[in-house]
């Protein structure tokens, strides 16, 4: 660890100098406006990590990078600070000036490079030419403003602040960003309560804690069902549980979609991810129909497709997780697909190109789902614990159980569709 | 896990690399290690009382002969093979001789001198960045990095060579440590070079989760593998992940998102003009996920990282800020 230690030593060497510096500069001295005139007393004070010795030569654009991590200071002043507002050399300013001096001196002492000996040079080394006060005042106001605008440092700081404001410094291990999601919550709540007027039945079957696998029918050109299921559990379940849903691979090939879905809680569907989530005791939703489910045509609606290779059953058996069948009704009419074109799928990175009454006729706007009435119905949990984890290798059993779950969900769906009077009003 | 009783004689190849230098510093202070033998073309700055320095160039055909003589003379029991490049190079032919053929030389020397324990440095990079990767790659996952790029191909070959060396039944202990990209205040590699630029390239529309390991943790893992006999392959990673955009923001850089079809020719051109730190093959890692699961190292090797990914980034960034304003003159290793 030598190299690391060297770095630490280099840092600690600076401490004696700090004292010298502070003493040298903190002594009250008559305030000469010319001395601090070219320096911007405002932004400089505690933020900028710059050696005082060369105020003009240091590239401003190099500074202020770390400032984001410093909490905003209380004594921040507007860019047109004391230097221009007050007549230079005013007596009442003396105290404030001296304080700012002392603070700057302390900071400079901290930040001063190791190579410079301060003992030899107790006099401040600002060798700016002395300008007559009245000339300086006007120059300074304009100069300050101009410099403020020109300094890339300023923009970088703003950029950094804006950039970090909308994101958390930490995401969970599957990429869910709480503050990113928080910005989307109003939209999701609106979709859930007002747009689709989702009615959720059977949430009491979702355990308040411990792992559970929700298995649902899949639909929609835009896979909104996972997001609505998550919203339902968040808004209406007494324990406000967090549901993660497994999304198809192809969204991770797409620009923007993959990253955005990942930040709001989608996880790529694969055995490793699902197993890790369930081991942590999460509530996980899967759509075993997969891409075939999203690709259902309007006339195939509510006819459940093949349930993959029964991966979700193997998962449930291996991790000893109860399975909760779930029917989502209404979602399959939100984007009625009349035809799908698979010719350009390789080129576009999507499994198919949908043709709906509005897409691509209305462009991207045509993808807006129709305001159908949704109904999410959760059935009784199915327990497969009796089979033991080794049953996951029994292909016949896995196939049989998968078919049983599929038939159960199909029954839930059929019952829900039969009970429904209108697609729009439920 | 068993602690070796007699003082160890440890040979280190690539002793002047970041890992080599710091590992030697740690082993110098460990009483379980009796002798350190370094094989490199230079003298490592941390070489102390216990260290014997040998000038061996692994790219020379005579390296095998010479290394085995050294191993025999010093009665080396453990070899730490760190002679790999931390950053891509334009000298691909030389890199191949150094990494792939060099590993062959060293392993043959071990066979001749009956060195039965090998600790090899590998990287999680070799899993490759793919949209079909699970969020956490386990050690069983195949190495799917782009083989057409020699930077990956040589390392994969070297690792396979080492695993063949440690095939069961030979009584050899081979520990392969796959580290995540190493970040920290003093290390230098293509990641630190990438993040040291004022403006960094990212891929438009993609924001993969990144994972790093702090330099102190990485070195500590190697020391663990040297003083304990734990055969196997382990991912050495920090806890936690961060989206690339957050990493760039934490480092105080400006991200310039480029569409991938545009980024490829641009980065190739920059790479050919020696203006980029990495060839376009590494753009995959800015687009897709390559995050490894470090639980096995925790359970079996007893490795627990001190720094999270976020702390590693911040630790690197604070040192880099001082370098940026020339307050820290010292160049990274």
Short key terms for the protein model shown above:
heterodimer; A: 426 residues; alpha/beta; Glycerol-3-phosphate (1)-acyltransferase; two-stranded antiparallel sheet; 17 helices; 42% helix; disordered N terminus; B: 333 residues; Rossmann fold; two-stranded parallel ribbon; 11 helices
With strands numbered from the N-terminus, the spatial order across the biggest sheet of chain A is: 1-9-6-2-5-3-4
The assigned CATH architecture of the domain at 8-181 and 213-238 and 291-306 in chain B is 3-Layer(aba) Sandwich
Strand order of the biggest β-sheet of chain B:
3-2-1-4-5-6-11
Low-confidence stretches of chain A: 1-91, 113-131
Give the helix proportion of chain B (percent range).
25-40%
User: How far from one another are the termini of chain A?
Assistant: 68 Å
H and E string of chain A: HHHHHHHHHEEHEHEHEHHEHEHEEH
Which structural class is indicated by helix and strand composition of chain A? alpha/beta
Mean of the pLDDT scores of chain B? Answer: 93
Shape of chain B: globular
* Separate helix tally of chain B: 11
Structural class designation of chain B:
alpha/beta
Number of strands of chain B: 13
Which regions of chain B are unreliable across 5 or more consecutive residues at pLDDT < 50?
Answer: none
Which chain pair has the greatest contact? A-B, 53 and 57 residues
Number of DSSP-assigned strands of chain A: 9
């Amino acid at each position: 660890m030598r190299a690391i230690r060297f770095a630490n030593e280099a840092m600690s060497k600076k401490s004696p100098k700090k004292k010298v510096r502070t003493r040298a500069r903190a002594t009250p001295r008559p305030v000469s406006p010319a001395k601090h005139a070219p320096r911007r007393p405002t932004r400089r004070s505690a933020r900028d990590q710059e050696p005082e010795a060369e105020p003009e030569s240091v590239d401003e654009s190099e500074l202020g990078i770390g400032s984001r991590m410093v909490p905003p200071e209380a004594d921040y002043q507007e860019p047109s600070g004391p230097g221009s507002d007050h007549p230079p050399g005013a007596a009442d300013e003396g105290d404030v000036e001296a304080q700012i001096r002392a603070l700057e001196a302390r900071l400079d002492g901290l930040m001063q490079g190791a190579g410079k000996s301060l003992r030899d040079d107790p006099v401040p080394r600002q060798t700016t030419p002395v300008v007559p006060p009245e000339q300086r005042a006007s120059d300074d106001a304009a100069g300050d403003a101009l410099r403020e605008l020109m300094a890339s440092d300023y923009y970088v700081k703003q950029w950094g602040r804006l950039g970090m404001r909308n994101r958390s410094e930490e995401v969970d291990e599957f990429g869910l960003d709480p503050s990113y999601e928080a910005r989307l919550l109003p939209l999701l709540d609106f979709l859930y309560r007002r747009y689709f007027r989702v009615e959720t039945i059977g949430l009491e079957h979702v355990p308040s804690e411990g792992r559970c696998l929700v298995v649902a029918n899949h639909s929609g050109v835009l896979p909104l069902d996972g997001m609505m299921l998550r919203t339902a559990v968040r808004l209406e379940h007494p324990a406000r549980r967090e549901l993660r849903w497994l999304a198809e691979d192809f969204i991770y090939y797409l620009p923007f979609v993959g990253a955005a879905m990942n930040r709001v809680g989608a996880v790529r569907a694969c055995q490793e991810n699902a197993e890790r989530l369930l081991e942590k005791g999460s509530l996980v939703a899967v759509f075993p129909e997969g891409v075939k489910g999203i690709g259902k045509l309007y006339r195939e609606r509510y006819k459940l497709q093949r349930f993959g290779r029964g991966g979700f059953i193997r998962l449930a058996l291996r991790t000893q997780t109860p399975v909760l069948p779930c029917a989502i009704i209404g979602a399959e009419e939100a984007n009625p697909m009349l035809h799908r074109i698979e010719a350009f799928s390789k080129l576009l990175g999507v499994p198919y190109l949908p043709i709906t009454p509005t897409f691509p006729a209305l462009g991207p706007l045509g993808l807006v789902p129709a305001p159908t009435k949704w109904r999410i119905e959760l059935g009784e949990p199915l327990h497969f614990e009796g089979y033991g984890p080794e049953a996951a290798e029994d292909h016949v059993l896995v196939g049989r159980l998968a078919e049983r779950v599929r038939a159960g969900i199909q029954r839930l769906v059929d019952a829900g569709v039969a009970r429904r009077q209108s697609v729009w009003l439920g | 896990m068993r602690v070796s009783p007699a003082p160890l004689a440890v040979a280190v190849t690539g002793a002047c690399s970041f890992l080599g230098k710091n590992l030697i510093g740690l082993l110098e202070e460990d009483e379980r290690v009796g002798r350190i033998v370094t094989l490199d073309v230079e003298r490592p700055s941390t070489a102390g009382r216990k260290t014997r320095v040998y000038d061996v160039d692994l790219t020379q055909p005579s390296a095998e002969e010479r290394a085995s003589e050294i191993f025999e003379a010093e009665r080396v029991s453990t070899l730490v093979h760190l002679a790999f490049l931390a950053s891509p190079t334009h000298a691909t032919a030389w890199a191949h001789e150094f990494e792939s053929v060099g590993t062959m030389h060293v392993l043959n020397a071990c066979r001749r001198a009956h060195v039965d324990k090998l600790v090899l440095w590998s990287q999680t990079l070799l899993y490759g960045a793919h949209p079909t990767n699970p969020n956490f790659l386990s050690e069983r996952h195949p190495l799917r990095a782009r083989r057409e790029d020699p930077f990956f191909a040589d390392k994969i070959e070297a690792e396979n060579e080492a695993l063949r060396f440690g095939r069961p039944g030979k009584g050899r202990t081979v520990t392969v440590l796959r580290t995540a990209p190493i970040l920290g205040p003093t290390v230098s590699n293509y990641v630190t070079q990438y993040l040291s630029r004022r403006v960094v390239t990212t891929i438009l529309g993609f924001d993969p989760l990144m994972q790093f390991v702090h330099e102190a943790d990485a070195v500590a893992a190697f020391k663990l593998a040297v003083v304990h006999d734990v055969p196997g392959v382990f991912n050495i990673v920090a806890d936690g992940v961060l989206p690339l955009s957050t990493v760039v923001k934490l480092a105080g850089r400006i991200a310039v998102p480029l569409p991938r079809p545009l980024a490829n020719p641009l980065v190739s051109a920059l790479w050919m003009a020696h203006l980029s730190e990495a060839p376009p093959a590494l753009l995959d890692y800015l687009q897709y996920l390559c995050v490894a699961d470090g639980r096995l190292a925790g359970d079996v090797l007893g490795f627990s990282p001190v720094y999270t990914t976020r702390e590693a980034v911040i630790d690197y960034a604070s040192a880099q800020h001082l370098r940026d304003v020339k307050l820290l003159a010292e160049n990274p290793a």
